[in-house]
Write a sequence for this structure.
């Protein structure tokens, strides 16, 4: 069966520090991968998606970047964190080429910027 | 651009009451529709989905939803809620086709069920 792992679960970082959140998927090949940010009362906002290695599309302008160095690995990064980057970050995967199939979500990372 | 609107931010019910959570979307083309649930301390998981066929779809744990194309709605229902249904519920839509499965989510509805 397929599983998705995100780490760390919780992170506290000072303003201006770098960030690296990692997401890996097991049990499937060639997935679509997504990063979302969840804000209280505002649902989930899609930040990035990827349909293949090295292929990243950004949905909203922001201080963050994403990379996909391997087929089942998706990384969310920042060189210098801002206070506004605080939030709950979720990684998800879906079957490539099948938009009617659901996305499967990781447990998320709660990021607090001090 | 697509948007999804969930009518209620917080719904409070007693056990055995009936539930209906509203969801409306704005998009003129073919859509795939989803309801996700997030129980306290757990990850987001799929309740049910609609992409074609019978507009009344049934999901896990006794939930169902009805797609009404003319109203751009996909409301979630359950005849009799339980305390264990306490969670946050999200409606989501993607445009199908070459949308790469990208989901647009509603703001979420927190459901609290009192025993």
């Amino acid at each position: 069966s397929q599983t998705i792992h995100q780490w760390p679960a919780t992170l506290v970082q000072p303003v201006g520090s770098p960030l690296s959140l990692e997401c890996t998927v097991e049990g499937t090949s060639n997935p679509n991968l997504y990063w979302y940010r969840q804000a209280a009362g505002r649902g989930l906002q899609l930040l990035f998606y990827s349909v293949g290695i090295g292929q990243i599309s950004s949905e909203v302008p922001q201080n963050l970047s994403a990379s996909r160095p391997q087929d089942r690995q998706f990384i969310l990064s920042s060189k210098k964190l801002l206070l506004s980057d605080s939030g709950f970050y979720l990684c998800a995967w879906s079957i490539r080429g099948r938009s009617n199939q659901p996305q499967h979500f990781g447990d998320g990372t709660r990021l607090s910027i001090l | 651009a697509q948007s999804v609107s969930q009518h209620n931010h917080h719904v409070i019910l007693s056990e055995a009451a009936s539930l209906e959570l509203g969801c409306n979307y704005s998009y003129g083309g073919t859509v795939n529709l989803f309801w996700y649930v997030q129980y306290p301390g757990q990850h987001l998981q799929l309740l049910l989905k609609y992409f074609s066929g019978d507009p009344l779809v049934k999901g896990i744990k006794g939930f169902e939803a009805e797609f009404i194309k003319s109203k751009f709605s996909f409301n979630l229902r359950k005849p009799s809620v339980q305390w264990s249904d306490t969670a946050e519920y999200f409606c989501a839509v993607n445009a199908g086709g070459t949308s790469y499965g990208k989901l647009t989510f509603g703001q979420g509805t927190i459901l609290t069920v009192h025993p």
